[in-house]
Structures are given as C-alpha cells and as structure tokens.
Amino acid sequence: MRTREFIAVVLATFVLILLGDGVVASVVLGPRGAAGNYNWNTIAFGWAFAVASAGLIVGADNNPAITLANAVRGAVPWRKVVPTFIGTFLGGFLGALAVFLVYRDGLVSAGMPNIWTSGAGAIYDSGHAAAGAYSLLTASIAEFFGTLVLMWAVLAVSDRKNAVLAKGGPFVVGGVILAIGLCLGGPSGYSLNPARDLAPRMFGFLAGSKGLFDGWYWLVPPVLVPCVACIAAVFTYDAFLNSEKSPAEDRVVEAGLQRS
Q1: How many C-beta atoms lie closer than 10 Å to residue 10's C-beta?
Q2: How confident is the model at residue 133, as a pLDDT?
C-alpha cells in the first residue's frame, strides 16, 4: 500500500470517529437546548452523517471487516489487508483523541464517562429501565444482522445494476447506517466496525474511562462478529444478489482467455 493510500485510510477513520463519537459525547454530556432535544435518534442520525461525511471527504476504507471480506471475495489484494487494519486503528485512535480534546472539560467534570464504545443496551419494561442488559449472544446476533445489511449495501452501491447510486454512495451507505441504528441498534449499539469500537476503546482506557475491557464483550460483538458477518455477506450477495460474476470468477475467466 502506498503512503498516500495509507494516509487516506487513517483520515477516513479519523473523520468517522471524530464525528461519530462526537455526537455520542454531545448526548452523554447533556443537551445545549431544552431537555429531550438529544436522544438515541440524535446518535443514530449523527453516526449516519459521520459515515457519509467520511466517505464523501476521503472515500477510503475505514472498516477493516469490510476490507477483510473484500479480500476473501477477491476484490482487494491480501497485501493491503494488514496496512488497512493498521491505518483504520490509527485513525480511530486519533479520532477519539480529537473528541477528547473537543469535549475535555465536560468529560473531566463528568468523571470521564464512556463515550467511546458500543455496548449491550439496557432492557426496558413499559418505558422504565429494568434490571439487566441484553446478553452477549443477543448482542452478537444484532451485530451480525446489522453488519450483514451494511455489507450488502456497500456491495450494492458498487454493483453495475445500481450504477445510478455510485456517485451518491456515501449518502446511500449513511442512510443504511441510519436504518440499522434505528431498527437494530438497541441490543449492541451497532458497532459494525472493529476499528470504530476497539481503537476508541483503547484511547478511552488510557484517558481514564472505567470498565472498557471487563469480561469478553469488548472482543466478540463489536470486533469478531462484524468480520464474520461481512464475509457471510459477500458470499450471500454473490450467490443471490450480484448482477455480475464475482471478482474471483472474473479473474478465472480472464486467466483462461489469456492462456487460450
């Protein structure tokens, strides 16, 4: 991977986390307007536009699970996987640092609350918080289906049958992120991206937020499940939804033509 391409990956993830964790900080630390102005909908819309903005401004990979799945699919060379992973985690860490600098006074005054990571949501009963939270299994299932839909959307934008969507791809994917957040985000906080969760989690730990690495939750739903879901998505998309041959099949055909 060339230096310019690596920097683009860093910057794309930096913008994603700067805006995404920034909206979480706005909600957690309190609204500037009247009570009720900031809520889950604010977070969902903020993250959707964070994804769209990163795609529009930089347009580089910022999700290592998608990069890994595209390598399995044959659309990305394997030699780019490790540098992309490193770039996304570096960008995510720097984005979290920038959010800390923007909201430092509020974070310190509030005792450094966790604004960095996704996590199991509380269970509600008739509008009142009940004891307990969604289980690791349930959160993993939510992450799987949310990431599956995200990867299908990413693949659909690049599909020839949807060429009309190509120029508006960042906003299409941002809209899908919004739908995932509003419809499937409750049990896990919809990480959908290992770098979106783990890199800011590392910074949050260093900054003094508590409990970020307790148990195994930090590893499974936000990190491992998106990787599995993206790989499952490329196989199902190519099998049932793709209007063209898969990239791997195209290379086999091209190799046969060259030998003949």
Answers
A1: 22
A2: 87
Contact predicate 96/200, CB 8 Å: yes
8 A C-beta contact, residue 134 and residue 54: no
Residue 201 lies in a domain: yes
Residue 215 counted as domain residue = yes
Beta strands per DSSP E along 54-180: 122-125, 128-133
- Asked whether the beta carbons of 222 and 194 are under 8 A apart, the reply is yes
Within 10 A of 243 (CB to CB), how many other CB atoms are there? Answer: 9
Range of the domain at 213: 3-117+133-259
| Nearest alpha-carbon partner for 167 in 65, 88, 74, 52 | 52
What is the 8-class DSSP label of residue 34?
S
Residue keyed to tokens 């347009």: 59
Helix (H) or strand (E) holding 40: helix 40-57
Query: What is the rounded distance in angstroms from the CA atom of residue 71 to the CA atom of residue 149?
Result: 19
Q: What is the pLDDT of residue 36?
A: 65
With tokens 């906080």, the residue in question is 189
Total domains present in the chain: 1
Q: Could you tell me the CATH number of the domain that includes residue 151?
A: 1.20.1080.10
What is the torsional sign of CA 76, 236, 193, 155? positive
Q: Is residue 124 part of a domain?
A: no
Q: Provide the pLDDT for residue 128.
A: 60
Give mean pLDDT in consecutive 10-residue pieces for the chain, a chain of 260 residues. Answer: 94 98 93 70 96 92 96 95 97 98 96 96 68 90 98 90 76 96 97 98 98 96 98 96 64 40
Contact between residue 38 and residue 26 where contact means Cβ atoms under 8 Å apart:
yes
